[in-house]
Task: inverse folding
C-alpha cells in the first residue's frame, strides 16, 4: 500500500507564514526593549518600581556614578526582598547586579559601594573582601576603601565568651564604602564643574568618615543610610549635572542628595511602598521647584 504524499506548500504560502512569524518576532522584540515608565519623574530625578536585574530603564554606558547600599543578608525585614539567603546564593545575587552596574556605567564612571566590613550573624563572613573580589572579577578596578565610623558601639549585644579567651567575638563597629571605577580613574566626561569646598575636600579625602547613622523610625525604612553618605560621595566623585544611579533605592536617600546637590538621579526599587516613600522624601526634603509625574496603579500594572 503506497502512502499518499503530503502536498508541498506553495512558495507564496511559505513566504506568507515566514512574514507572519517575522512580524510576531519583531513585536516580541519591541515589547522586550520597550522601556518601562517611571513611577515618579521630576526635574532630572527618576524612580522606577522594578527589579534591578530585570529592568531596562537605564541605558548602557550612561551612568557617571553609582552610590548604593545593597541588602546585607542579615535578616532585615524588607517588604519585598528575602534577606536570609545562604551566603553562596547571596554572593551569586551580588555578582549579577554588580555585573549589570558595570554595563550601565560610562568608561570613566565610579562606584561607591556601601557594605559591611564583615558579618557575624549566621556565621562569620568576610563580606567586604568577598564582594570586592567579585567586583574585580566582573571588570571593576579597585581604587580605595573608606571606613565609615557610625559611632554605634553602644548598641552591641554579642560578646561571645564573656571575659574569657575561650571564644570571644571581635566586632568592628564600622561599615565601608568601597570605591571602584570602570576603565580609567581620571574623569573626563560631564560638565567638569565641581561644587566641593576646600574644607570638604580636605576632610573627605581622609579615608575615615565619622558621622551618625540614620533612624529607622524617623525615615520609615528598615535600613536607611543618612543623606551625609551619598552627599559626600556625590560631591567628591562626580561633577554638577552628572547622572547618579542607586539600584537599591530604598527610602530614596541617594535621590534626595542628588536633588540637593544639582545632580541627575535614577533610583530603582522592587518595592512600591519604598518608591512611594522615596517620592515623598524628595518632595518634602528638597527645595527645587517640583514638576512631578507619577503614573497610576493601572499604568503600573500594564508595564
Result:
Amino acid at each position: 500500500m503506497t502512502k499518499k504524499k503530503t502536498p508541498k506548500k506553495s512558495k507564496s504560502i511559505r513566504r506568507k507564514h515566514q512574514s507572519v512569524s517575522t512580524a510576531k518576532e519583531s513585536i516580541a522584540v519591541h515589547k522586550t526593549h520597550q522601556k518601562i515608565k517611571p513611577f515618579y519623574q521630576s526635574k532630572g530625578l527618576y524612580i522606577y518600581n522594578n527589579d534591578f536585574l530585570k529592568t531596562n530603564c537605564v541605558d548602557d554606558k550612561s551612568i557617571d556614578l553609582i552610590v548604593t547600599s545593597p541588602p546585607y543578608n542579615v535578616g532585615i525585614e524588607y517588604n519585598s526582598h528575602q534577606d536570609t539567603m545562604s551566603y553562596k546564593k547571596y554572593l551569586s545575587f551580588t555578582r549579577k547586579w554588580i555585573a549589570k552596574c558595570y554595563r550601565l556605567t560610562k568608561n570613566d564612571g565610579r562606584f561607591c559601594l556601601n557594605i559591611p566590613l564583615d558579618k557575624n550573624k549566621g556565621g562569620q563572613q568576610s563580606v567586604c573582601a568577598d564582594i570586592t573580589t567579585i567586583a574585580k572579577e566582573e571588570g571593576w578596578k579597585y581604587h580605595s576603601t573608606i571606613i565609615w565610623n557610625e559611632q554605634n558601639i553602644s548598641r552591641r549585644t554579642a560578646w561571645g565568651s564573656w571575659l574569657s579567651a575561650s571564644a570571644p567575638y571581635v566586632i568592628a563597629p564600622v561599615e565601608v564604602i568601597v570605591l571602584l571605577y570602570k576603565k580609567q580613574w581620571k574623569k573626563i566626561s560631564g560638565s567638569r564643574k565641581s561644587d566641593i569646598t576646600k574644607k570638604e575636600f580636605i576632610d573627605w579625602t581622609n579615608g575615615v568618615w565619622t558621622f551618625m547613622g540614620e533612624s529607622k523610625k524617623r525615615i520609615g525604612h528598615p535600613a536607611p543610610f543618612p543623606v551625609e553618605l551619598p552627599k559626600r560621595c556625590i560631591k567628591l566623585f562626580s561633577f554638577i549635572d552628572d547622572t547618579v544611579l542607586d539600584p537599591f533605592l530604598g527610602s530614596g536617600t541617594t535621590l534626595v542628595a542628588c536633588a540637593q546637590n544639582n545632580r541627575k538621579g535614577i533610583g530603582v526599587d522592587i518595592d512600591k511602598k519604598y518608591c512611594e516613600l522615596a517620592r515623598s522624601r524628595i518632595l518634602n526634603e528638597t527645595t527645587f521647584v517640583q514638576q512631578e509625574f507619577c503614573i497610576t496603579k493601572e499604568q503600573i500594572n500594564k508595564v
